[in-house]
Amino acid sequence: FEMCSQLQAAKCPVEYLFLFDGSHSYVAAYTQSYRAKLTPGKESEAETEALCAFIQQFTGIEYNKLLETLLPLSDLEARVNKAVNLITPSHKNVSQDMLHFAASTFYHKLKAADRYVPTSKYHGNVTLLRAKASSEYSDGLGSDYKLHEVCDGKVSVHVIEGDHRTFLEGEGVESISGIIHSSLA
């Protein structure tokens, strides 16, 4: 969204914008739900929450166990290193450097997304490819995740089988591919 808005501001044409189960409001709802649990000003808690979510994408480690492990560590670097050590045993084929980069980037991406507020409207049509299984974060956002508030074109919503993580697998990929191909035709 932001890249397309910046391209438009630079007078570069943007023909298509496809969003995959997300919007500015969806990400804000996600980060705000985590922020509500945190002590204001305690960066260690924010880092720990983000890295717990990251680790749980790759392992079956319980949230409370991760919290006990990560929170006492001295800083973000120590938490990221621990995250890599926890993920590596079940994902030996993934480089530790790549995991380190992904974990620290995940935290910084969430931190940036938490502060993000669109400064202008997107001038054009948007296609939202939305997961069928809604999450607690999408409740109250409407079917278009509030994209109508920041876009002056048509917002098309296509619901894809799966949840936020699985809709990009199997039949979901086929559905998404078909929607994109028909939109570009």
UniProtKB/TrEMBL annotation:
Molecular function as annotated in GO: fatty acyl-[ACP] hydrolase activity
Source species, domain of life: Eukaryota
Documented EC number(s): 3.1.2.14
Domain Thioesterase: 1-183
GO process annotations (BP): monocarboxylic acid metabolic process
InterPro entries: AB_hydrolase_fold, Thioesterase
Name of this chain's protein: oleoyl-[acyl-carrier-protein] hydrolase
Natural source organism: Cyprinus carpio var. jian (Jian carp)
